Amino acid sequence: MSETPPGPKGEPLFGSSRRYARDPFSFIAAVEATYDGVALFDMGPMDTYMVTEPADIERVLVSEADAYRKPDFQNDALGDLLGDGLLLSEGETWERQRDLANPAFRMARLSGMADRITGHAESMVEEWSAGQTVDVESEMARVTLNVILDLMMGVELSDERVRTVEDQLEPLGRRFEPDPIRFAMPEWVPMPGDEEFESAVDALEAVLDEIIETRRGTEGVEGIERASTGADTGDPPMDFLSILLRAQKRGEQSARQLRDEMMTMLLAGHDTTALVLTYTWYLLSEHPEAERRVQREVDDVLAGDRPGMEHVREFEFLDRVVNEAMRLYPPVFTIFRESTEPVDLGGYRVPTGSTIMLPQWGVHRSERYWQDPDSFDPDRFSPERRADRPRFAFFPFGGGPRHCIGKHLSLLEAKLILATVIAEYELDFLGEPPLEFMPSLTMHPRQTMEMRVEER
User: Fold this and answer.
1) pTM score, whole prediction
2) Residues paired with 51 in a beta bridge
């Protein structure tokens, strides 16, 4: 077995980090196209194995997941932000917290929340009017944030506090854009943007403190669930915050752990769904035939009703459109792991402590697995065409034991919000394609996503 896979040659000291930082998307695409399944390059001081063969991705995420962990390099500023929440925690801490979170994300619970998701979408649409121009990325971020606050924290924030959260997202995102200087510097060296990042974290923590104190004492039967829904089921509320507050009462949850989980939920819980929606609106605007087909399906399925759980399973073409949006524009464009023991990938021996990159951007657009991969073709997700495709040629939510716990909520949310808007309006993109992207923790469009609201 060969010890070292081929890969691009980098510069002294910086390796490939400067090329990656300039445009990670073109770098990933070039490496995927040039090397067969596994490539090795130097990301500054860090050797990185980029894996693009679906069978090997499945081994890393699923069948041999115990041989990998989240890498340490993600635990500096990201650790300051998200701490030991579900996204970053490992071992027994992760298992305990995941077990606590599972009931809040079960489909049996979420299906009963469909009306509330639709209600948030309707509140957004009520503020629109035909001919108005809206920033769709901002609108989708606000509605998905309101959903996560309601369903997972049991609160409704004032518009002012929601804006406070939104205002922190840009300085947080800038901190995680690839920077070859940061790659080469110790974490303790001050860098531009550090103060803005710390200020944004402080502002979000203040909002979370308010939410937690508002909810404290309402996590039992006589709590927010009864007040907000009018239901008197005798059951305790099962939003994630209520579950954690009850665990804290039992002495099973520290104040710091509670903060970390709520910060993770606040940020990761809405951002990816908002981006899926943003890119879906863009693609529909750029492809009128697909847009008309979605409109016909929504009209036929709803038959004048407001979108509900009973309709979601009937949205066949809408489901394909959402999948195709996540294929072309995956909000999480790459996943990293670190090997905890020597492993075999693609016929190469990979040593302990190696950084493994699993890039959705490269695999989702690979000519090896997709015909005409840069084109928008929702029907590539029809049962007939997806039958012979490798499972991990498409993995927008990761996979295995650490797959995104919010997958079902995100897809339910996206379809209900899309259907609510489509039933009344269409959105026309006012910018100039193609899109350009900011590579932070998630993939945001660089341009303002202004769209004109047109009455159907």
Assistant:
1) 0.93
2) 38
